[in-house]
Design brief:
Blueprint lengths: L31 H27 L3 H12 L5 H8 L3 H13 L3 E5 L7 E5 L1 H25 L2 H26 L24
Antiparallel strand pairs: 1-2
């Protein structure tokens, strides 16, 4: 599934005298919209492949890796907030945290202002291991990407990715609110998720 916004099938964005007309526009397979959609899907596939290999080398599954990505981005987080961001039940998150704590990838400590809450923090060992694997890619990508595009071009890329992310998040929430009706991994028995949908 694409991370970016793509034109609807059969849309006529390139016909007539509207602002969408011009070289490369239109709804055909060679239009800029179609090529952009294909490029985004190919990029996402490459990201998925990278994450899969990173998870393998870290000794975790891909949901665990997503948890670690969230922890790298914040100083600390509560299990409830982590559950919300991952779209998992609190029980699933607890099991995941137990697993990652055994790997010494995170710590759980009581909240200083509310003893009923727990704060989760990533460990230096996890950061060292992850960034040791990611570092060569970041160096290579940074050098090649920033050397290829002007700051003005990168601003357009940032705007596209930010807007596409916001649209995608709206539909993530829509899907989370939609009850599953088809076969599930539990053999057809639907497990309710934190927002009424099927848990993963």
């Amino acid at each position: 599934m694409s991370s970016g916004t793509e034109p609807e099938a059969g849309s006529d964005t390139g016909s007539g005298s509207g602002s969408g007309s011009g070289p490369g526009s239109g709804s055909g397979s060679g239009s800029v919209e179609a090529r952009l959609g294909a490029a985004v899907q190919a990029y996402q596939s490459a990201v998925d492949d990278f994450d899969r290999e990173l998870a393998r080398l870290m000794g975790v599954n891909e949901t665990d890796l997503r948890c670690l990505e969230i922890l790298f981005a914040v100083a600390e987080i509560t299990p409830r907030e982590l559950s919300r961001q991952l779209g998992l039940t609190t029980g699933s998150v607890t099991t995941m945290l137990d697993r990652l704590e055994k790997l010494t990838y995170l710590t759980r400590t009581p909240h200083p202002d509310d003893r009923r809450k727990t704060l989760i923090r990533v460990t230096p060992e996890a950061a060292q291991r992850a960034f040791g694997l990611i570092g060569p890619f970041l160096d290579d990508a940074g050098r090649k990407v920033f050397g290829r595009y002007t700051p003005e071009q990168l601003e357009v890329v940032i705007d596209y990715l930010t807007f596409s992310r916001d649209v995608q998040r709206q539909h993530v929430e829509r899907l989370r609110e939609t009850p599953a009706t088809g076969p599930t991994r539990t053999g057809g028995r639907q497990v309710r998720g934190p927002r009424g949908g099927a848990a993963t």
